[in-house]
Amino acid sequence: MPLWLVWIKICSDFYRFSILSLLILIIPFIIAYSYKHNPTLYMKHILYLFLILTTTLSFAQEEEKEYNSAVVKVNSFIEGLLVTPYSDESVPLVIFIMDSGAINRDGNDRMSKNDTFKQLTYQLAKLGIATYRYDKRLFKIDGLGIREHEISLDHYIEDAVSVIDYFNKSKNYKKIIVAGHGQGSLVGMIAAKGRANGFISIAGNAESVDQVIIEQIAKQAPGLDKSAFIAFKQLKENGRATGYDPALESIFAYHLQPFMRSWVKYTPAEEIAKLEIPILIIYGDKDIQVDTLQGEKLTEAVPDAQIMFIKNMNHILKEIKGGRLENHKSYNEPYRKIIPEVITGISNFVNQ
Description:
The protein is about 45% helix and about 15% strand. By secondary structure, it is of the alpha/beta class.
């Protein structure tokens, strides 16, 4: 085989996908040219090539050792990504549970992409913390052969319990921390009881979902809150809401009522008070989905919990210095970095 083909094979095998590999591939031809026209530069070019090779190889090996990613299927409903830092010792594991809606393991829905939890897991891996994040079953509804009205909040709790039990049985981790975002905070705190070594609530509500929705409607559409109150009362007492204002169809549509009925029976402040493990509560003052008052009420339920109120952080953990327009746009801007305080706060809590 010609020497130039051998060189290309070596570069493709050891420096695949590296931008520097292109430079390394070209340099020998530059050296050959310089040797032919100016032999005095030959040794200098050889030295430069050696330095580039050793530096690139060291960088590639160092980057490669940071973490390993593997798809883990817990059962027919749960599939996610396990990100584990390379370590000779046992490391802690954080299990992330996503917010309401059809959310995938990265924190994205079908209409937007922010990659919040994709970013967060890799940042934590660099700090020696393993993570597991999984798609909600609502996100995979077509592949699972189930319909939306057949899913309840209790199914999400069952899924979270299955994940925690799966990793507890493996006995590969120093400790297991459950971290729930938004609706996932309620799911996580229920599933974590008696199973996890710690719990992190990220932008979670303190009140039951009916109270939260009624309060939001009262602020945004005064008058409709009375119709919502009656509908929720019917839902809790009779299992079905009827006669509500058509403007509330997005909340009380027929196919949504089974899920809402299962959700409304839980009050997060009551559930989190049942935990006997370390708790971290995280909120941002630029959250347009969860009022900071919810954070204050949640902390009242667990006075011993660690609290982080982060300035300029929105619901998806990104820094917002402007107004609502910037906030809304950030939900579809995956290039925005997670606010550093979140990463530091979670890392310190997990490693305490």
